[in-house]
C-alpha cells in the first residue's frame, strides 16, 4: 500500500557532472526517498549521488538504453515501499524550492489529476539561440494538458497501473505515458508555478538539428502507435514541408520552369510564422521541419526493415 502523502523522487542521468550534484542537492531533505538511476556514467556520478544520500540504481547497460527504461528502474526500486507521489527529474535539472508545495496543492484541487507539471526554464537561455528556443518550447499553456515532459510529479499507483513508461521508446515516452493515463480517466495538469531549471547546453547547430530529428522520430512513432490524433498534425507538417514539398518542387521544376515558382511557398510560410511568432522562431520552426522529416522517415524506414532505431543523442 502506498504511503499516503509521501513524495519520493527518481532522478536519471549519465555523465551529468556538476549538473547532477545541483539536481540532487535541490531534492535533498525535501523528499522521503531519493533514487538516482545511473546509465553507465564514467565521470564519478555514482559516487557523487551516494555522497548526496541518494539510493543508487545502476541500469543494466547490456540492454539498449532509453530514458524510459531508466525511469522504470526507479519505479521498480520504489515499489516495495511505494509513495503516494513520485517526482521524476532529469539529472540536468534542478528542482525549484516551492515546486512540491505548489504541485501537491494542485493535486488537492484536482482530485482526478495523476500528473502535475509546471514551468521548466533553461538555466542559460542567453547562451545560444538554441537554448533560447528550448526555453520557449518549455513554456506550454497553463491548465489541463495532454502531456508533460521529463520533469513531473505523478501519482505512483496510477503510473504503476499502466505499466510505467514504454521502455522501447527512444523519444516521446512522456506523452505516451500521459496518453495511457488519460485513457484510464486520469488528468494531466500544467500549473503556473516554477518547477525546474534545465541546462540543455545546446551550443551548436548540429545539436539542435539532432534534437529536431529526434522530435520527428517521436512524432512519427507516436502517430503510428496511437493514430493521427496523437502527434498526427506534427508528423504531417514535418513530412509536407520537410520532404513532400521539396520533392514536388523538384519534379515540377524539372518538368517545366514555372514549377520552380512553388519554392515561394517557403518565404510565404516564413512571413506568416514571423508575423505570429517572431522571425527567429519562424526561421528555426521552418528549418526544423527538414530535420523532423528526416527523423520521421528514419522511423518509417527502420520499421520497414523490421529494426528499431538506436538512441538519437544530441549532448
Structure in words:
The relative contact order is 0.12. The longest helix has 27 residues. β1, α1 and β2 form a beta-alpha-beta unit. By secondary structure, the protein is of the alpha/beta class. The chain has 11 helices and 9 strands. The radius of gyration is 21 Å and the shape is elongated. Strands 1, 2, 3, 4, 5, 6, 7, 8 and 9 form a 9-stranded mixed sheet that branches. α9 packs across α11 and α10 crosses α11. The chain folds into 2 domains: 201 residues, Spore Coat Polysaccharide Biosynthesis Protein SpsA, Chain A, CATH 3.90.550.10; 100 residues, no CATH class.
- The portion of residues forming beta strands comes to 15-25%
Can you give the helix content as a percent range?
40-55%
Report on the biggest sheet: 9 strands, mixed
Q: In sequence order, what are the helices and strands, one letter per element?
A: EHEHEHEEHEHEEHHEHHHH
Low-confidence stretches: none
Shape: elongated
CATH top level label of the largest domain: Alpha Beta
Return the CATH architecture of the largest domain.
Alpha-Beta Complex
CATH topology description of the largest domain: Spore Coat Polysaccharide Biosynthesis Protein SpsA, Chain A
The strand count comes to 9
Structural class: alpha/beta
Short description:
The chain has 315 residues and is α/β, with parallel strands linked by helices.
Keywords, please?
315 residues; alpha/beta; Spore Coat Polysaccharide Biosynthesis Protein SpsA, Chain A; 2 domains; nine-stranded mixed sheet; 11 helices; elongated
